Amino acid sequence: MEHIQCLIIGSGPAGYTASIYCARANVKVVQYAGILPGGQLTQTTTIENYPGFPDGVEGFDLMELMRKQAENVGGELRQGIVTKIDLSHRPFVATIDDKDQLEADAVIVATGASARYLGLPDEQKYAGMGVSACATCDGFFYRKKVVAVVGGGDTACEEASYLSHLAKKVYMIVRKPYLRASAAMQERVNAAENIEILYNTNTVGLFGDNGVEGAHLVRFKDTDKQEFYDIAIDGFFLAIGHTPNTAFLDGQVALDEQGYIKLPGTTQATSVEGVYAAGDVADPRYRQAVVAAGTGACAALDVEKFLANQRHA
Ligand code: NDP
Q1: Model confidence over 155-204: pLDDT tens digits?
Q2: 228-243: pLDDT as tens digits
Q3: How far, in Å, is the centroid of ligand 1 from the Cα of 134?
Q4: What is the set of active-site residues?
Q5: Residue 119 half-sphere exposure, CB side, CA atoms within 13 Å?
Q6: Mean pLDDT score, 263-267
Q7: pLDDT for 27-57, tens place per residue?
Q8: What is the model's pLDDT at position 279?
Q9: With a 6 A CB cut-off, is 123 part of the ligand 1 pocket?
Q10: Would you say the CB of residue 118 lies under 6 angstroms from ligand 1?
Q11: Taking the CA of residue 13 as centre, how many other CA atoms within 13 Å lie in the half-sphere pointing to its CB?
Q12: Ligand 1 centroid to 150 CA: how many Å?
């Protein structure tokens, strides 16, 4: 079985930065790209808060730069998903795409988080037929059409604002009487003439014969003002937050109640010795690209120290 020193799982800013640091420290590192190569930033538009880019940078381009940088310093990136990992003894044994296996002395989990859905059966029914969790990926298909974005956070505002430049009209379906998004994002949404915010509103279902043609909504759910109504839409975009990608760990690493990896100390070390976590998978608080990159560097430095201690033990 192939044996490496450090396995990095995930290819967002955390994974690539960890790979850069490991490779530069002469740690034999292999990084698996995971479910969404390049991570969440490949699905966003211009990033204005990643330092070093005074005019902003496209999310996809930033991730390509990180990938090249990691490869230039000797990091090895492979396509594939770590479907299973045995952390009960060292070296750890990872299974890739349910078939190949490799052994690693240390692991950095940088699997990020995935878009959340409402859990309506219609989301499945219309998957790829009008339901999407990525406006920048699919917005193109809704030029001059009518779309809805669910959620009231920064992501929802960003998606709505992006779609407002393509679509004829954008509804935002917000369950509270206010937006949770930052003031800057709210301003951007309010400035768009073709965005209409439906406050106090939840989605009950979707309808349409050939793809999404509308949504069944309820206003003031479960109150005496409750009112059901429909809107005609061509696309339904989810922007209601993310779930950390920790299911493959199968309970071997301590998680918090939301499923994020717990970091019990002041380093990136998890509850399992030799296993480290970086980026959004262990960060329910900040969830920023620059923070993910920073914790990726920390995790790699932790691994370097761990491996050195093992050698001298
Ligand atoms: P958030 O958790 O901030 O917001 C989620 C939104 O979805 C909330 O309005 C929430 O409503 C709503 N929601 C959640 N579950 C449901 C449900 N079942 N039905 C209806 N609505 C629901 O997630 P975001 O993805 O927006 O942001 C995550 C983090 O990333 C934040 O820290 C954010 O600031 C950051 N971010 C920053 C950006 C930037 O600075 N450019 C861009 C995008 C994200 P409720 O308010 O009622 O809970």
Answers
A1: 899 999 999 999 999 999 999 999 999 999 999 999 999 999 999 999 99
A2: 999 999 999 999 988 9
A3: 14
A4: 134, 137-138
A5: 0
A6: 97
A7: 999 999 998 899 988 877 778 889 999 999 9
A8: 98
A9: no
A10: yes
A11: 21
A12: 10
205 lines ligand 1 (CB under 6 A): no
Q: What is the dihedral of CA 15, 81, 259, 23, to 10 degrees?
A: -20
Q: Is ligand 1 within 6 A of the CB of residue 221?
A: no
Cα distance between residue 108 and residue 110, in whole Å? 6
Residue 80 in contact with residue 32, Cβ under 8 Å?
Answer: yes
> 10 Å Cβ neighbour count for 225?
9
Residue 151 CA, closest ligand 1 atom number: 7
Closest residue by CA, ligand 1 atom 16? 240
Tens digit of each residue's pLDDT (9 = 90 or more) over 62-110: 999 999 999 999 999 999 999 999 999 999 999 999 999 999 999 999 9
Task: Note whether 51 and 7 are within 8 A (CB).
Answer: no
User: 158 CB less than 6 Å from ligand 1?
Assistant: yes
Instruction: For residue 97, give both structure tokens.
Output: 């795409």
User: Which tokens hold the place of 132?
Assistant: 């999407």
| Contact yes or no for 59/47 (Cβ under 8 A) | yes
pLDDT at 266: 97
Most informative mutation of 46, 173, 175, 243 for ligand 1 (most atoms within 8 A of CB):
175
**Does the CB atom of residue 280 touch ligand 1 within 6 A?**
no
What is the pTM (predicted TM-score) of this model? 0.78
> Which pair of structure tokens corresponds to residue 34?
């995971």
Q: Whose CA is nearest to atom 36 of ligand 1?
A: 154
Closest listed residue to residue 273, CA positions, set 252, 298, 248, 255? 252
